[in-house]
Amino acid sequence: MNEEPVFVRSRWGANRYVYNHRNPAGLALIIIAPVVAIIAMICLHDSSRWSEGELRTAVRRGSEDLTGSTQYVSPDMDLATLIREVIQDSGAGPGLGLDVHREGKDGGRGYTVSTGDTGKRYCVRVTMTRVDPDSRFPFIRQDHYLTASASEGPC
């Protein structure tokens, strides 16, 4: 029977406990703990990167979620932040690392979505329809129905 404890006080001046290499359980913990930490780091790294399939799914789901929604926006407003949020909330991919920027073509309603992890780019086009078309103030910020469509390639 082994009388050595699993944890012993450190002899390096600090008042802390360390694994005891003379105990078989302590020795196993000395070997297993770094292996588990390395595997966890590898898994976390892989889950923080976008794949092409995840980006495609996130952009399509985000544009579907945006279609039919009512937003308090103005026609000249940049919707890049709104598009980034719906794509991040789609449930596909890590969510972080999206680059969404407005393109000047087609009336300024096209937004190119990409990431640094993939070479793919997607175009999300957004159209707005005022909820109250008879408003006396058509150019101020008000509720709009949004319709979004996604296609592969930049806008």
Provide the fold topology.
Blueprint: E1 7-9, E2 17-19, H1 24-47, H2 52-66, E3 70-73, H3 80-88, E4 98-103, E5 110-115, E6 121-130, E7 142-152
Helix pairs in contact: 2-3
Keywords:
155 residues, alpha+beta, 2 domains, five-stranded antiparallel β-sheet, two-stranded antiparallel ribbon, 7 strands, 31% helix
Explain what you see.
This protein is α+β, with helices and mostly antiparallel strands and 155 residues long. It folds into two domains: 7-47, no CATH class; 52-152, no CATH class. Helix content is 31%, strand content 28%. The strands form two sheets. It has a five-stranded antiparallel β-sheet with strand order 3-7-6-5-4. Strand 1 (7-9) and strand 2 (17-19) form a beta hairpin. Helix 2 (52-66) packs across helix 3. The radius of gyration is 26 Å and the shape is elongated. The model has no long low-confidence stretch (mean pLDDT 82).
Radius of gyration: 26 Å
How is the main sheet built?
5 strands, antiparallel
**Strand content range:** 25-35%
Low-confidence stretches: none
Helix content: 25-40%
- Structural class by helix and strand composition: alpha+beta
Helix/strand order: EEHHEHEEEE
List the total number of helices.
Answer: 3
User: What is the tally of beta strands?
Assistant: 7
How many domains? The number is: 2
What is the residue-mean pLDDT, rounded to a whole number?
A: 82
Order of strands, widest sheet:
3-7-6-5-4
Distance between the termini: 73 Å
Shape: elongated
